[in-house]
TrEMBL record:
InterPro entries per record: 4pyrrol_Mease, 4pyrrol_Methylase_sf, 4pyrrol_syn_uPrphyn_synt_sf, 4pyrrol_synth_uPrphyn_synth, 4pyrrole_Mease_sub1, 4pyrrole_Mease_sub2, CobA/CysG_C, Siro_Cobalamin_biosynth
Listed GO MF terms: uroporphyrin-III C-methyltransferase activity; uroporphyrinogen-III synthase activity
Organism: Desulfosalsimonas propionicica
GO BP term, pick one: methylation
Listed name of the protein: uroporphyrinogen-III C-methyltransferase
Stored Pfam families: HEM4, TP_methylase
Pathway participation: Cofactor biosynthesis; adenosylcobalamin biosynthesis; precorrin-2 from uroporphyrinogen III: step 1/1; Porphyrin-containing compound metabolism; siroheme biosynthesis; precorrin-2 from uroporphyrinogen III: step 1/1
Gene3D superfamilies to which the protein is assigned, alphabetical: 3.40.50.10090, Cobalt-precorrin-4 Transmethylase, Domain 1, Methyltransferase, Cobalt-precorrin-4 Transmethylase, Domain 2
Amino acid sequence: MTGKVYLIGAGPGDPGLITRKGIDCIAAADVVVYDYLASAELLKYARADAELIYVGKKGGDHTLNQEGINALLVKKAGAGRVVARLKGGDPFIFGRGGEEIEELVAAGLAFEVVPGVTSAVAAPAYAGIPLTHRQFASCVTFITGHEDPDKTESMLNWQALADTGGTLVFFMGVKNLPNIVEKLWQSGKDPKTPAALVRWGTTAGQQTVSGTLETICGKVAAAGLKAPCIIVIGEVVSLREKMQWFENRPLFGRRIVVTRARKQASDLVERLSQMGAACLEMPVIEIEPAKDLSALDAAIENISGYDWLVFTSVNGVDAFFTRLQGLGYDTRVLGRIRTAAIGPATAKRMNDNGLNADIIPESYRAESVVSAFAGQNVSGKKFLLPRAEGARPVLPEELSKMGASVDEILSYRAVQGQAEAKDLAEALKSGRVDMVTFTSSSTVKNFMALLPESMAKQLLSGTTLAAIGPITAQTASDMGLEMDVIADEYTIDGLCKAIAAYYQKKTAV
């Protein structure tokens, strides 16, 4: 086998900015070698059997020095492996990609370069700073703020940089900021020239400090800004005041824990991220089939004997149709059965499986389903309810009171998720969490089970808690937790709206 290295620009931090080809190369790789500045979220595209190797360099602390990285790439590719080398930004813009390729060429190994979005362009854009503008700058210069320390003299022509009249963008220069400012002053650059530093550009942790050449050092020191930063100097910086957008989003910078099962968390994570939040996925539940599916199988085999099929959750729909198809059936066997669903998400999942809901109650609680059936003749009718272990008994009890015959079948269960108790406790203790979200009673119970009982309330002190609805909030209350946010509409969309409204109100006070 012939090995190959794909040198991939991972983009500046926002995982959505990687190219399609970059994702395809990660997915095809046997080995993924990734940097400190490459988003760890990109690793989800790697194969389950891929070898993941971290070689990050952070403030002089090198997991592996550049020579070691070069040797690693040669070794893995030389052994016939396909290697995805993930580098933050673009590999050829101060990414030392050229050095790595020189080693591959010397070893006679195949490679491809997949360009990426450089932080020099992306970080200012996310800070509301256009690098060029017809009225302010007709050229832009990219400059290293940290030259090779082994050089005997600088390769930078400071006089030429000061005289360009365009935008100057410095990489890795936060430690050398005073020297950069001094060199430009000495070369005649106007001290009133606007300047800005953008830290962790394009991520939820983005921080921007702006001023002028004569004030920027003091402002950066006061803000405690550290690497990684991009420095932008030029008249275009003045446009930030009216063009900033990324940092204006309603949840910008809020660190929110998502406790949903990992497979189901994507919609909530996506919505919160779009509003600016930094999401910490800590799945405290996982959805599994019920231990004994014989009752569900028997119900499906005798499905023609039921008049109504009622789903109370997306998980119930998934579990039912997995078994239906596993037994060799499809929706044709449900032709005469009437159906009901709690909530639009449940109804949509039914629709995805080719089944429309006859009844969708106005609100998304079992009590509302009971009310919806008040106008139906259910006496003597047979109901099938595929649901979770430990589900609330309200619905089957009330339907039975109305004369219905109800088979409540256990089709799935929510078990303890894979969130690490140590990581969760550390995140809360260190103050890295602004809010914890709960989307079911199970998430509340399993979340609390992960925390030391004697320290739970102390760890959650000062942390905002949000529930998807009153049932989840009541479970929390029973366990000694009071919710700060309770969605009026018991859906993911409703929860996100309630969270945004909470922080908007808090900011306005």
